[in-house]
Amino acid sequence: MQLQQNISLKPYNTFGIDETAEYFIALHNTSDLEELTAFNKEKHILGGGSNILLTRAIQGLVVLNQLKGIQIEKENAEHVWLKVNAGEVWHDFVMHAVSNGWAGIENLALIPGTVGAAPIQNIGAYGIDAKETIESVEGWHWLDKTFIRFSNDECKFGYRDSIFKHGLKDKVFVTSVTFRLNKRAAYHTGYGAVEQELERMGVQELSIQAIAQAVIHIRNSKLPDPKQIGNAGSFFKNPTIPIVQFEALKKAYADVPSYPAADGMIKVPAGWLVEQCGWKGYRKGDAGVHAKQALVLVNYSDATGSDVWNLSEEILHSVNNKFGIELEREVQLW
Questions:
Q1: Count of helix runs (H) and strand runs (E) in the chain
Q2: What is the pTM of this model?
């Protein structure tokens, strides 16, 4: 392992924020974790840097997760179980599964970041959440200095949430995730614009390959490429509100989009709420709201993390004042 000091994190976060790490190391082997544990500094785990907002220099050690590898643990006539190391690029894993005909994550194509973030954030898109395919998660416990395996239930998954963001935050470093994928696909095309995109593509016979391609087309048309303009994808979670509140909202805004959620709640797209408040395309200095998707905050060039954070604060207050709905940030503050 090569320990570095005072390293710029600009290349390692998709917002392109230029903050430094006091110490920095790239981890390629789990065998180095015990030695790393002995380094007496606060540790921050960095994957693809696609869901963080840096607002300060990071004291302690930033560990870049570079654990690679995908292997079949077992399979039967219906399913295949894949153990995927946490440093694998998520989209690469999705396309690996799709190319092998293993179904279940095709709707999650082109989500940025690494596999290790999938259980932490319970990533999701177009009607599918990662928790539906995760069998178990393995991680290194910093204090106990041992590997621990968590079943799906033990992960306590919620909407963009898990135990790794709360009770085990900063205590467990996710090293691998085991997924159970299907050899027979159950297609999910009714959420968002997937069905319309498949029609536009002229798809005659539905397949996981076609669904993945449709999702890629949709995401490319809506979301800016972080290589061209700094962003972390969806900045806010879609809020869920009681049906009584939704019915009142629908009386005032007949075209409000919605989706059913658990326990009789209704999910309303955060991007729609932000757009209705007039933020779409807004720019203040180098921080702004993307012109094609109001859910995405961007760094046009040299915005600081505080610039982006302060803009998000204004948006939160604006949506709450107009709709009485409290948005929650999806992006994690560093």
A1: 8, 20
A2: 0.89
